[in-house]
Amino acid sequence: MRWKCICAYDGTDFEGWQRQLNGGAVQNILEDALSRVFDTPLKTHGSGRTDAGVHARGQCFHFDADWPHDSGKLIRALHSILPTTIKILSAREVPDTFHARHSAVGKRYTYRYHFGRANPLEQRYVWACRDTPIDFEAMCAAAKGLIGRHDFSAFGATHGKDSDPNPVKMIYRLDLMKSGRQIKMTTEGSGYLYRMVRSFAGALYSVGRGRLHPEEISEILHSKTRTHRIVTAPGTGLCLEKVFYEEGALPTKESK
Description:
Blueprint: E1 2-9, H1 26-38, E2 45-46, E3 55-64, H2 71-79, E4 86-94, E5 106-115, E6 127-129, H3 136-144, E7 148-151, E8 168-179, E9 182-189, H4 196-208, H5 214-223, E10 238-244
Parallel strand pairs: 3-10, 5-6
Antiparallel strand pairs: 1-3, 1-4, 2-3, 5-9, 5-10, 7-8, 8-9
Helix pairs in contact: 3-4, 3-5
């Protein structure tokens, strides 16, 4: 039996999603819980990695094991072992052709900036930036230039352990919403290079601060070369919101 699970986690105290030798990653914790429930060593396969401090509301993973009870009992058994910073949102049996990573057709991420001192109850989930004037319209203009099918080599980090060999991705959505002292960036795309979303966030922040112009973002994109002018934003503000698996779940027109 192959099980598809959706989980949420507060990534603050974990060393990312991908299993680590010291056991400090979300994947380590899940595999330990599953192995205890099934009384046999089990491995999971995730939709992709998230770095240390990065959160998830809709991370997907799958594993193979026979379970004679309903999915609700499986979730309750896991929750009796897992820390409260990890929650299984759903679990269901799927065909063995399903793969959490290879079957994915797209992902949605959000990134949150907070300008000034953040509320202590929110500071784990935002990038607390300096409380200085921000050109929000310039940030929005720069974001529009990143939508579409492009080679995003200039916004990827090449040293990732599971670096994607194909830098060409389709970004369907990259928009910003401002509310008080916060700005939320939302992006949806066919896939993302290692640290690409955090690079988007860092680049747009630089535009807002006047360190880069929107036209320079387009120039850097088309150069296909990583530059020190692109800053990688901290992981705290990033959240994996959803992984898409059905064709048609994301826009199909590349002009959108």
